[in-house]
Amino acid sequence: MQWSGGDSAVPDSVCSFPCELGERKKMVKGVPCCWHCELCDGYQYQLDELNCDMCPFDMRPMPNRTGCRSTPIIKLEWSSPWAIIPVFLAVLGILATSGCIITFIRFNNSPIVRASGRELSYVLLTGIFLIYLITFLMIAEPSAPVCAFRRLLLGLGMCITYSAMLTKTNRIYRIFEQGKKAVTPPPFISPASQLIITFILIGVQLLGVFIWFGVVPPHTIIDYEEQHPPNPEFARGVLKCDMSDLALVLCLSYSIVLMVTCTVYAIKSRGVPETFNEAKPIGFTMYTTCIVWLAFVPIFFGTAQSTEKV
C-alpha cells in the first residue's frame, strides 16, 4: 500500500506523542486528548506532566529539568588575577613602608627625622601600612571575624593617614597665620598636642565603626542575584560579607571629609616660605588623591561583579 507522499510506512493514528523529560503537556483548546510539548525554560523544572515550576532562589534546574540542584558557591580565590595583582602591589607597598619605618627608627634622633615631626610621621606610616594590609583581608575567605576586621580596618588606615596629614597642615597654617599677627606661637603645636588631636580625629572613625557593629553585627551572606544569567548553567552564588556598596562608601566618607579638609589647608598654606617645605608636598599629594577619589567612585558603582570591586 502506497501512502500520500510516497511513504510506505503506516502513519500513526494519534494527534500527540509523549513529551520528553523536562517538557510539559500544553493541551490543545477544543481537543481534549491532544497536546503540544513545551520545554520548561529558564529556571523552571518539570513539576508534573502539565506544569512547570520555578526552582527556589538558591537552586537551579537539573540538566534534564526534572528537578532542582544547588547553585555552586564561589568566592574570590587567591589564584585569581583580581587577587594576584593587588597582592603583589600590596606586598611592594608593605616592604617600602617597612623600610621607611626601619629607617626612621634607626635615625630616630637625627635632626632630619626630628624636624619632620617624627611622632606624626610614625602615625602616618602606620596608616599607610594598614592601607596595604587591608588588601589581604579583602581577598580572604569571608567569615564573621574577617568581615569585622574589614569594617574596622577599611576606613581606619585612611583615617589615620589623613588625620596625621590634616594635623600637620593645620599646624603649618596656624603657625604662619599667627606669625602675621603676633610673635607668640599658636596653641596646640607641641608634639604631644598634635598626637592628641590626631587620636581624637581617629577616635571618631572608631566610634562610628563600633556603632555599626552594634546596629548590624558583621556576618556573611550568599548573593544569588549578582550572577543570575538567563542560562542557569552559569548561575553562581557569591559568598561575601554583608556590606552594601552604600555602607562601604559611608565607611569611607569620614576619611573623605578629612582628605578634603586637609586639601583646603594645603591650598591655604601654599604661600609659606620655601624653607618650610612640608606644605607643598602635602598639597601635591592631596590634589592627586582627590583626583583618584573622583575616579574611584563612578568606577566602583559602575562595576557589576563583587570580585572586581574588591
UniProtKB/TrEMBL annotation:
<keyword id="KW-0675">Receptor</keyword>
<dbReference type="InterPro" id="IPR050726">
    <property type="entry name" value="mGluR"/>
</dbReference>
<feature type="transmembrane region" description="Helical">
    <location>
        <begin position="120"/>
        <end position="140"/>
    </location>
</feature>
<protein>
    <recommendedName>
        <fullName>G-protein coupled receptors family 3 profile domain-containing protein</fullName>
    </recommendedName>
</protein>
<keyword id="KW-0297">G-protein coupled receptor</keyword>
<feature type="transmembrane region" description="Helical">
    <location>
        <begin position="194"/>
        <end position="215"/>
    </location>
</feature>
<feature type="transmembrane region" description="Helical">
    <location>
        <begin position="82"/>
        <end position="108"/>
    </location>
</feature>
<keyword id="KW-0812">Transmembrane</keyword>
<dbReference type="InterPro" id="IPR038550">
    <property type="entry name" value="GPCR_3_9-Cys_sf"/>
</dbReference>
<dbReference type="InterPro" id="IPR011500">
    <property type="entry name" value="GPCR_3_9-Cys_dom"/>
</dbReference>
<dbReference type="InterPro" id="IPR017979">
    <property type="entry name" value="GPCR_3_CS"/>
</dbReference>
<keyword id="KW-1133">Transmembrane helix</keyword>
<feature type="transmembrane region" description="Helical">
    <location>
        <begin position="246"/>
        <end position="267"/>
    </location>
</feature>
<feature type="domain" description="G-protein coupled receptors family 3 profile">
    <location>
        <begin position="82"/>
        <end position="310"/>
    </location>
</feature>
<feature type="transmembrane region" description="Helical">
    <location>
        <begin position="279"/>
        <end position="301"/>
    </location>
</feature>
<comment type="similarity">
    <text>Belongs to the G-protein coupled receptor 3 family.</text>
</comment>
<dbReference type="GO" id="GO:0005886">
    <property type="term" value="C:plasma membrane"/>
</dbReference>
<dbReference type="Pfam" id="PF00003">
    <property type="entry name" value="7tm_3"/>
</dbReference>
<keyword id="KW-0472">Membrane</keyword>
<keyword id="KW-0325">Glycoprotein</keyword>
<keyword id="KW-1003">Cell membrane</keyword>
<dbReference type="InterPro" id="IPR000337">
    <property type="entry name" value="GPCR_3"/>
</dbReference>
<keyword id="KW-0807">Transducer</keyword>
<dbReference type="GO" id="GO:0004930">
    <property type="term" value="F:G protein-coupled receptor activity"/>
</dbReference>
<dbReference type="InterPro" id="IPR017978">
    <property type="entry name" value="GPCR_3_C"/>
</dbReference>
<dbReference type="Pfam" id="PF07562">
    <property type="entry name" value="NCD3G"/>
</dbReference>
